[in-house]
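Here is one chain, start to finish.
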Amino acid sequence: MTAKALSVVIPTFRRVDALQRTLQRLFEGGTEGLEVLVHVDAGDADTAPMLATEFPQVRCLQAEVSQGPGGARNRLLREARHEIVVSLDDDSYPMDPDFFARVLVGFAAHPEAGVLAMTIVHDGEAAPKIHARAEEVADFVGCGCAYRQAAFLDTQGYVPLHPAYGMEEADLALQLIDRGWKIVHRHDLRIRHATDRSHQTATPVVAAHIRNTALLAFLRYPPRYTGFAIMQYLNRIVYSLRRGHLRGAVVGVIGTPVHLGRHRKLRAPLRAATIETARQLRKAGQRASLPRKHAGPASART
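Its structure:
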């Protein structure tokens, strides 16, 4: 892999083996001009020594107080030396040898993009073919995306939460849209995420997702969207119950009032037009993902 004037940022916590594998894949093809930063959260005593020994070219940032993935990314984005910043997890990595060149081409083609969303391929999933297609979307995933640093710094950044499911990227996406930036999904950017996502059914994660669904609305929705916010919260609870996650749902509901109170000083509602734009983009994405009948050959739809 080759890259010029580009940074890669990775938050990690007590996952030395996964991080080793990711960095080995990242550096195996050569990465001239690439800056790599790793944020080691508080309480992890093993990762920094491994980096110093095996990957001295990596900039290691260590936290004295736990930041969670969101707080880690806030610091990493501020510390990055280049304007274009690729975001990975400690268990995610690019799939294609010309990935970084494609990232730079993507931002050049979309000067209005604050974030390039990517195609994430998890364990057990077949990798889709590379498509030269792009569209504006409402969401992105932090384990595989690229930021325009100026756009990120134009926002308040991530709310430091752990677990952050239901809040992290959803919140930042709304902030970006509110400030006039776009999120563009480039289908020629593929990331392998070495997980089967089974951890997302754990009680703490289910509970966090419910609490954070309420927190996102509390912090960012204007009053006119109160009814919509309540409906989203209830839908998330029902979704969890239907999948048999009763304990997680109960823990999440009980913890919601305290969760909102703890973060009330961060409340900064966005414009109603921003919420509506995100809703319309999400609906368009859902329509595009539905099976099409008699849609003609694939070549006519690209």
